[in-house]
Write a structure and sequence with these properties.
Helix content: 25-40%
Number of domains: 3
Shape: rod-shaped
Order of helices and strands: EEHHHHHHEEEEEE
Structural class: alpha+beta
Number of strands: 8
Strand content: 15-25%
Distance between the termini: 87 Å
Strand order of the largest sheet: 3-4-5-6-8-7
């Protein structure tokens, strides 16, 4: 049977780069991709431009997947501190930079992939690779919106937090300044008649006038009514997110 392409051809498979010399059927023996010997668009000739085109015709790689997932994990770790804009600053900065890098590469690569693959049958193999980064981003947003990082932080720090709450409740109105418990660092911890407030972040200077305070509260009894200053949002058990405006 005659060869489909000349034995000295530089034609290569668009999918895996296998040399298509000496074949007697229009199918790559390496990956199984079919080609049409009369249609140069179904194979490439292996020059730099063709190699670049073949590379850009492939879905995004695992390096970007890993970077996207790492960025999402870092931002979720940064969200362990409740409602604090800075969170764990280094984690948030690293996560944001990772996502910036992913966006700069992912969006142009997707557009190029759509243009280069066009409507050729089977050209858009591996399309699911493009879903990894969006899935990681959506998952991160859902997890943070559900306050799951804070819940996990409280769960793994429960014993030292409860010990600190017991200490603060013994002297209501007398704050414990600059203390730590588990994974948390606090500006102050203060007992009051309904429980204990743990302040993780202050806008302003404490002690002194402040614009806002953020953290969480331990309220073993009835939840205090919101008084246009203190606001509470239930997390789990006797633990609540807390913010004080003014």
């Amino acid at each position: 049977m005659a060869e489909l392409l000349p034995s000295d051809t530089r034609a290569k498979c668009l999918n895996c780069g296998y040399a298509l010399r000496g074949l007697q059927e229009p199918r790559c023996p390496e990956c199984g991709r079919e080609f049409d010997p009369t249609d140069p668009n179904t194979f490439c000739y292996g020059g730099f431009g063709e190699r670049l085109k073949r590379h850009l015709s492939e879905p995004i790689g695992w390096a970007i997947h890993l970077l996207a997932i790492t960025g999402a994990v870092l931002l979720m770790i940064g969200a362990v501190v409740p409602e604090e804009p800075k969170g764990l600053f280094r984690c948030n900065v690293a996560g944001a930079l990772a996502w910036l890098f992913v966006g700069v590469i992912w969006i142009p690569r997707l557009l190029l992939w759509l243009i280069l693959t066009g409507s050729r049958p089977g050209a858009r193999h591996g399309w699911w690779h493009w879903l990894v980064a969006p899935a990681a981003f959506i998952g991160m947003v859902v997890v943070c919106e559900c306050n799951l990082p804070v819940r996990v932080g409280i769960m793994i720090s429960r014993q030292p937090l409860e010990a600190l709450a017991q200490e603060a409740s013994g002297s209501p109105g007398v704050p414990i300044l600059r203390c730590t418990a588990g994974v948390y660092e606090f500006v102050y911890v203060e007992g009051f008649d309904r429980g204990v407030r743990f302040c993780t972040h202050v806008y302003g200077r404490y002690p002194g006038p402040t614009k806002a305070r953020y953290g969480f509260a331990y309220l073993p009894g009835p939840v205090p009514s919101e008084d246009r200053v203190n606001y509470y949002e239930h997390l789990q058990g006797s633990w609540y997110l807390w913010r004080r405006i003014g």
